[in-house]
């Protein structure tokens, strides 16, 4: 069931659009903001609210890279794996993250703290390699910086 | 040397807020336009300047606007494409974070030209800081009477919304962007009808790149002749160029359109890092053909780069050095394109993962000469005219040129049954 705050925010979005289904992506963002990810139940709840079929909402939810259809940890690490970061050695950063966190891409630490994901170009190529955690962008990262970066996220 | 787009952005890149923007002449172009020009005259002025779209395609902006029907009732839309996601591209971020009102002023003038009443900034999710800055800028512009009803006391109204995406390269393609803004999967639409006639929610819509729209206030203030005089070549204006990769000073610079690749790489980017040699470059982002040291004197404008066999694209270059494996480099690119294909049309959905797999096999020493032929065939089958949008043809550009310029590297992987480069 959607929470009162989710319903209130989705209702607000519905007032901005000419047809209900145009609020689909915003609705997914709102629910994910509250729950970190989009469960089957959330897909059905959003579909009901937007007069869409669950399949239709799911087709949108699964299309976009940053809508998570599986549970993720409290902090999602998005490591840029595109070309400038490749040239500047992101693969070594990835290896270091795997060793520090003992998880691979798509996995979450047992304490639910971090999920590690690859991500397409973060648009900061003159400062590669780069990664994002939540709203925070880290640039020109070296392996030695990683423990200090991760320590900020509990 | 004039740098109209970036001259007021401090070296720190910190945002110019409303008062600061007004203090350097901000919104004077809008004032002038609303007082002196008809919508048609605005479009004519942009057409005269021959401003070409900075998002990659290089189509005439004034021409694009002139296709919008003016005698229809009902809403029209103006959209800034701030979904910068071409790998190797980081130019619009500079403008979005540094001078948000310059973009908004350009958008308001563009909206006036096509008589749109609703505008959107479609921004990629990753630009969190830019989104915050833009949110404040939009609120400030409303409060100052540059947005909303009766703008500057005239009979013109415009509402502005920031839409932040949820990640997908396809959203940068203008018709896919429209689908995404309608809450759908970002798959491209058939053209015609073009968005200028039937775009967002089936209404006339213009989608322009951030850098393109940011130029509009300057063209209104200074005119087409001034715009043309900024450039070294027939394509007018300045351009934001960028360089990334193993150069001494990676970065972005606003320079006259048509600077040479050599000047960019050697003077602005400071040349290659010690001990490395230049081998090639993607001149305008991931979906452009490689150029090599034979092309260093190519002028970086639309015609110049095209004559050399590539595209100006976004004008942000990615450098390949002699210690980085060209096969691994191209595998990285095709991995990106295969992942970001929307899956809507078959050649792209099936072909891109195939090229990615072949390139991985080659990179890991499991490739054959037949694989090279297979890659060549793919560059044809996924080329222009065979797919629904430009994603797959764009993906084939670096591949086909790598097969041409770095053939010996591909063959050495096959002969040695391993990657000869040490960086893995």
From TrEMBL, chain A:
<feature type="binding site">
    <location>
        <position position="85"/>
    </location>
    <ligand>
        <name>[2Fe-2S] cluster</name>
    </ligand>
</feature>
<dbReference type="InterPro" id="IPR042128">
    <property type="entry name" value="NuoE_dom"/>
</dbReference>
<dbReference type="InterPro" id="IPR002023">
    <property type="entry name" value="NuoE-like"/>
</dbReference>
<dbReference type="Pfam" id="PF01257">
    <property type="entry name" value="2Fe-2S_thioredx"/>
</dbReference>
<comment type="similarity">
    <text>Belongs to the complex I 24 kDa subunit family.</text>
</comment>
<dbReference type="InterPro" id="IPR036249">
    <property type="entry name" value="Thioredoxin-like_sf"/>
</dbReference>
<feature type="binding site">
    <location>
        <position position="80"/>
    </location>
    <ligand>
        <name>[2Fe-2S] cluster</name>
    </ligand>
</feature>
<keyword id="KW-0411">Iron-sulfur</keyword>
<dbReference type="GO" id="GO:0003954">
    <property type="term" value="F:NADH dehydrogenase activity"/>
</dbReference>
<keyword id="KW-0408">Iron</keyword>
<dbReference type="GO" id="GO:0051537">
    <property type="term" value="F:2 iron, 2 sulfur cluster binding"/>
</dbReference>
<keyword id="KW-0479">Metal-binding</keyword>
<feature type="binding site">
    <location>
        <position position="121"/>
    </location>
    <ligand>
        <name>[2Fe-2S] cluster</name>
    </ligand>
</feature>
<keyword id="KW-0001">2Fe-2S</keyword>
<dbReference type="GO" id="GO:0046872">
    <property type="term" value="F:metal ion binding"/>
</dbReference>
<protein>
    <submittedName>
        <fullName>NADH dehydrogenase subunit E</fullName>
    </submittedName>
</protein>
<dbReference type="InterPro" id="IPR041921">
    <property type="entry name" value="NuoE_N"/>
</dbReference>
<feature type="binding site">
    <location>
        <position position="125"/>
    </location>
    <ligand>
        <name>[2Fe-2S] cluster</name>
    </ligand>
</feature>
Automatic annotation (TrEMBL), chain B:
<protein>
    <recommendedName>
        <fullName>NADH-quinone oxidoreductase subunit F</fullName>
        <ecNumber>7.1.1.-</ecNumber>
    </recommendedName>
</protein>
<feature type="domain" description="NADH-ubiquinone oxidoreductase 51kDa subunit iron-sulphur binding">
    <location>
        <begin position="327"/>
        <end position="372"/>
    </location>
</feature>
<dbReference type="InterPro" id="IPR019575">
    <property type="entry name" value="Nuop51_4Fe4S-bd"/>
</dbReference>
<dbReference type="InterPro" id="IPR011537">
    <property type="entry name" value="NADH-UbQ_OxRdtase_suF"/>
</dbReference>
<dbReference type="GO" id="GO:0051539">
    <property type="term" value="F:4 iron, 4 sulfur cluster binding"/>
</dbReference>
<dbReference type="GO" id="GO:0010181">
    <property type="term" value="F:FMN binding"/>
</dbReference>
<dbReference type="InterPro" id="IPR054765">
    <property type="entry name" value="SLBB_dom"/>
</dbReference>
<dbReference type="Pfam" id="PF10589">
    <property type="entry name" value="NADH_4Fe-4S"/>
</dbReference>
<keyword id="KW-0411">Iron-sulfur</keyword>
<dbReference type="GO" id="GO:0048038">
    <property type="term" value="F:quinone binding"/>
</dbReference>
<dbReference type="GO" id="GO:0046872">
    <property type="term" value="F:metal ion binding"/>
</dbReference>
<dbReference type="Pfam" id="PF22461">
    <property type="entry name" value="SLBB_2"/>
</dbReference>
<dbReference type="GO" id="GO:0008137">
    <property type="term" value="F:NADH dehydrogenase (ubiquinone) activity"/>
</dbReference>
<dbReference type="InterPro" id="IPR037225">
    <property type="entry name" value="Nuo51_FMN-bd_sf"/>
</dbReference>
<keyword id="KW-0874">Quinone</keyword>
<comment type="similarity">
    <text>Belongs to the complex I 51 kDa subunit family.</text>
</comment>
<keyword id="KW-0288">FMN</keyword>
<keyword id="KW-0004">4Fe-4S</keyword>
<comment type="function">
    <text>NDH-1 shuttles electrons from NADH, via FMN and iron-sulfur (Fe-S) centers, to quinones in the respiratory chain.</text>
</comment>
<keyword id="KW-1278">Translocase</keyword>
<dbReference type="InterPro" id="IPR011538">
    <property type="entry name" value="Nuo51_FMN-bd"/>
</dbReference>
<keyword id="KW-0408">Iron</keyword>
